[in-house]
Structures are given as structure tokens and as C-alpha cells.
Design goal:
It is a single chain. The protein is mainly α. The protein has one domain: Up-down Bundle (Fumarate Reductase Cytochrome B subunit), CATH 1.20.950. 75% of the residues lie in helices and 0% in strands. The protein has six helices and no strands. Helix 3 packs across helix 4. The relative contact order is 0.17. The mean pLDDT is 89.
Length: 170
């Protein structure tokens, strides 16, 4: 999934883009931390055991927050198309810029595919759950790369990349 960017490129992200970034990040981290609740509930049901209110609540939260992630990501994609994104800083190796672009594209793909595959697995076709679950380790690796890249830009290259996601465009 390629997300087109309008030109000219802004110097920073908008307040809406920044807000969506951090809300989606928090929701994804919650999903990664507590997403196993769906598997636990399914396991309880398969074994015929009583499911507790907490199990049902966590499974329901996983579904509803997954839908929220999908909707928020769609809004974020629209904003990115309409408002653009700041250019990659000139400092650093060109390969880092390509790695960052690929990482962002894969993030967008996963941020759409994970909720869709989860919903399909829950409501239409259970085997899709295997694809859904396979995305978790990929998400974790991407998050680690993303955070490492942001910290590298901030503290090694000192090019203000991290600041762009903390301070909105004027």
C-alpha cells in the first residue's frame, strides 16, 4: 500500500497527524500487550470451561479497539494524502531514508491488514486468524525499528526528526 504525498512538503506534521500517530501507537501497544485475550477466550470455549467476565471484556476490547485502529488509520491516510509529510532529512545515509520509507509503508499495510484479518477471522473465516497472529511479531520488529530510528535521528544525527512528531506545524 503506497500512500501518496502532496507537494510542497510541510516542515512538520499537523496537530491532527501527530494526535492520530500517538493515539494509534497507544492502541496498537495495548493490542499487542493484551491481544492474547482472544486466544485465551477461544481456548476456554474449546475446553468447555467457564469464561470469566474479564476474559470476555478483554476479548471484546480487542475487537472494538481493532476497529478503532482501522478507522483512525484510514483518517490518518486521508490526512497524509491531503496534508503531506515532511521530507526525509538530508543528513544520514540514503539507505536510511529508504529503510524509513519502507518501514512506514509496512506500518500502514499492517495497520489496515491486522484489523481486517482479525475481523474476518472472528466473524467470517476462522483460519484467517493465523494470518492475523503472524502480524504480531512483525509489528513488534517494526516498532523497535521505528523507535530506534527516531532515537538515532534525535540523538546521533540531531536532525529533529523526533521533534516533528511532537510539535505540530505552525
Amino acid at each position: 500500500m503506497s500512500v501518496a504525498v502532496s507537494s510542497p512538503r510541510p516542515a512538520a506534521y499537523s496537530l491532527g497527524q501527530i494526535t492520530l500517530h500517538w493515539i494509534i501507537a497507544a492502541l496498537v501497544l495495548f493490542q499487542l500487550a493484551f491481544g492474547d485475550s482472544m486466544g485465551r477466550l477461544a481456548s476456554l470455549l474449546r475446553r468447555g470451561e467457564t469464561r470469566g467476565a474479564g476474559d470476555v471484556l478483554m476479548a471484546d476490547l480487542h475487537i472494538y479497539l481493532g476497529i478503532a485502529v482501522l478507522l483512525l488509520v484510514l483518517v490518518r491516510i486521508v490526512l497524509r494524502i491531503r496534508l503531506g509529510a515532511p521530507a526525509t532529512p538530508a543528513r544520514g545515509h540514503p539507505l536510511l531514508g529508504r529503510l524509513a520509507a519502507a518501514t512506514h509503508q509496512l506500518f500502514y499495510l499492517l495497520l489496515v491488514a491486522m484489523p481486517v484479518t482479525g475481523l474476518v477471522a472472528e466473524y467470517l473465516y476462522r483460519p484467517m486468524g493465523e494470518f492475523h497472529e503472524a502480524g504480531k511479531p512483525l509489528f513488534i520488529v517494526l516498532i523497535l525499528l521505528h523507535v530506534a530510528g527516531a532515537l538515532f535521528h534525535q540523538f546521533a544525527l540531531r536532525d529533529g526528526v523526533l521533534t516533528r512528531m511532537l510539535r505540530p506545524a505552525g
